[in-house]
Amino acid sequence: MAMGMHFKHGHMVFTTASVGLALLCWAALSAENSHAEQAVPGFSRPALTVRTTSLREDKWARTLSANGSIVPWQEAVISAQVQGLRIAEVRVSIGDRVQQGEVLATLANIVRPSEAEGSPAVEGRIVAPDAGIISAANATVGSLSQPGVELFRLIRKGRLEWHADLTADELMLLHKGMTADIMLGEGRVLKGTVRAVSPSVNMQTRYGYALVTLPDAEGIIAGAFARGIFDVSGGKRSLQSLPQAAVMQRGSKTFVLVVGQDNHVHERAVRVGERHGDRIQIKEGLQAGEPVVEAGGAFLTEGDVVQVIKN
User: Fold this and answer.
1) Strands 248-250 and 253-259
2) How many CA atoms lie within 13 A of 255 on its CB side?
3) I need a labelling partner for 102 at 20 to 30 A (CA). Which of 37, 55, 115, 139 fits?
4) Which CATH entry fits the domain spanning 75-156: 1.10.10.10, 1.20.1270.10, 2.40.50.100, 3.40.30.10?
């Protein structure tokens, strides 16, 4: 006979043994219900709480990046036309801007050409053949002139351009008239235009070049390094993209995790294209409107159940 304490409440009598039995029955029932939930087909606890995203229509310009240097558009080498004359005065120095015909240096002796040469000119000065900037000045007072020996070098018109180094495949994407953004030091950006594209590459380096005209060379130093971006698309084009965090890589496979109607995730192989900021172009493998895991896919595997947060 079970022993226990008796409690009276109205006409009902409870014992400690009966209360304990009731608690055991409740625990057994709870455990049975829990096992029953797991036995229900399709029931799984969410592995992760995620947000979803889908393809977005974007308009991007196709670009090509390159490195290179700032170079003179054209340089004129200036020397004396006669030999043996002493330089009496040098009037310019490097960095000076000069006009066409401006006197750069004078000679101590004046030599008058013979009438047989048919020229009445008097050689006593060295003048600028064009307007521009003096980039080199080797003439010194007292030295003797010699034909062909460089006395001055002149950047014609003061014009500079960007010399971009490119591979053969990259050169084939360019043509005259294309635009390029050239980035210089301290955040300065200039918009230039392709003036010329080399028809061949150096057989040792495998690089050729493109020359890009700069609209404003003020304050720019020839020889400076510069990085530029060519617009090779001729304008913006439409494409579809996803956040890069939604696209994963395993070996050679690129994939996303598509969330099904039952909240199970499924790997879907995709073909990607260009990257732009934090987004990546999706070329194949996904349809518009299909929900994919936006981030955290590395913690999920095929068939996992997720809880989707509504945006």
Assistant:
1) antiparallel
2) 17
3) 115
4) 2.40.50.100
23-27, 246-250, 261-265: the lowest-pLDDT one: 23-27
- As a 3-state breakdown, the chain gives helix, strand, coil percent values, each rounded to 5, of 15, 50, 40
As a whole number of angstroms, the distance between CA 177 and CA 179 comes to 6
Enter the tokens of residue 177: 């008239």
Q: How far apart are CA 105 and CA 88, in angstroms?
A: 7
Contacts of 30 (CB under 8 A, 6+ apart): none
pTM, two decimals, is 0.59
Q: What is the pLDDT of residues 291-309, one digit of tens each?
A: 999 999 999 999 999 999 9
pLDDT greater than 90 at residue 133: yes
Give residue 20's identity as a one-letter amino acid code.
G
* DSSP string computed for 16-46: HHHHHHHHHHHHHHHHHHHHHHHHSTT----
Percent of the chain with pLDDT over 90: 66
Reported as a single tens digit per residue, the pLDDT across 224-235 is 999 999 988 776
- Nearest of 309, 242, 311 to residue 280 by alpha carbon: 242
Strand residues in 167-246 grouped as ranges (E): 179-183, 189-197, 208-213, 225-243
Amino acid at 194: V
* Residue-level length of the chain: 311
The candidate with the shortest Cα–Cα distance to 104, out of 115, 92, 112, 93, is 92
**Which residues partner with 72 through β-bridges?**
160
- Token pair for 259: 């969330």
Q: What angle do CA 178, 181, 184 make, to 5 degrees?
A: 145
Residue 15's pLDDT is what? 42
The domain 48-60+238-308 is classified under which CATH number: 2.40.50.140, 2.40.420.20, 1.10.8.80, 1.10.1520.10?
2.40.420.20
